[in-house]
Structure formats: structure tokens, C-alpha cells
Amino acid sequence: MKIVDLTVDLKTNTPVFPGYPIPIIHQWTSVKEHGYYSNVLMLVEHTGTHVDSPAHFIEGAPTIDKVPLERFMGKGVVVDATGLEPKAPITREFLEKALKGKGVGKGWVVLIMTGYDSKAGTPEWFNHPGLDESGAKYLAELEINAVGIDAPSIDQAPFPGHKVLLPKGIVIFENLTNLKELVGKNFHFYGFPLKISNGSASPVRALAVLE
User: Is the pLDDT of residue 1 over 90?
Assistant: First the structure.
């Protein structure tokens, strides 16, 4: 079994979307002084590699603790979008071509590789390509479990991807990394959230198990 870790490090000053508080991971106790080591975490749910629940954009929709666990896993495929221009739309036409012959359908997880995980913490980070409405509708028609991306968001404002996918119960993984290791490979994706009561999202330990 080969496992590929798709998760960025969660630490103090991990880059976050504008408007969110900078995360702090503070040592609370030490083995030397207290006999045991522990940290206090102060962060928004959407920090680092995380998954959005439908409630993130849809009033009254399921929160992260209410989403069926099977939504956070599935047979995976990587779409290579590294050749797109900054802020380019990821369209139906682009995705149809990229996924042709892959057999993608109900229960799958589609991961979009932009390469922008390498730009985290820089101004360019937010210039990533993102789903437009047509691309999001195409993915929704496939009845997949989830969509993920190695960027701070799967789309750009006014967030058509979120508004199309989340009402369908399709969860959204953001800030993935190491997707290059999965291109052309057969794998299963897993990214389970914390069971945060009424949570809009949760950090995850995302990984792929190669077949």
C-alpha cells in the first residue's frame, strides 16, 4: 500500500483566506514543567487543508457533523489545470476534455491541480484558476461525492462553484497539496472532518491510497 499525504502543515501563521484570523498554535504545557505536552489551537474552521459543508453557503443546509461520511471519500481522479492562466475559468468544456474516458461518475472525488499550493502566503496565491458555473454544473451532473483543489478556493468571487455544488451535497476540499504525485494514477481519496457541532467546515488529514 502506498499513501500520498495531500495535507498542508497546520501551524501558526498558516496562510488563510482574506478576512479570516491568522491561526495560532500555542504550547500550553510541557513534559519538563507539567509532566505532559499539549497545545492550544486557535483557528477558523477553514484553515489549512479543510472541507466545506453545504451550510457554508446554503442557509439551513447540513453542517459538517451532519454530512454523511461517505461524502468524504471515493475513487479519485486528478485534473491537470496547471496550464491555465491566472484566474482562468475552469469550464465545462475544459473538464469534459480532461475527464473523457476516465469513467468518472457517482461517488467519485475530482481533484483539480493548479500548482498554486506552491504560492501559499504570496499575493499570487489568490490568482488561481477556479470553477465557473458551467464547470461546476458539469461536475454536479456527474453526481460525484466531492471536489478538491490545491488552492485557497475552488472558485473566484462570486463563488459559482460553491453555490452550485454545495446545494447538491457535494463537499469541497481546499488547500490540498502533492496532487502531482497522483496524476495518471488510480487511487482512492479520504479526507474526514472533525465532528464539529454545527460546523461550516473542518480541517482534515487528506490522503490518497494508490491502487
Answer: no
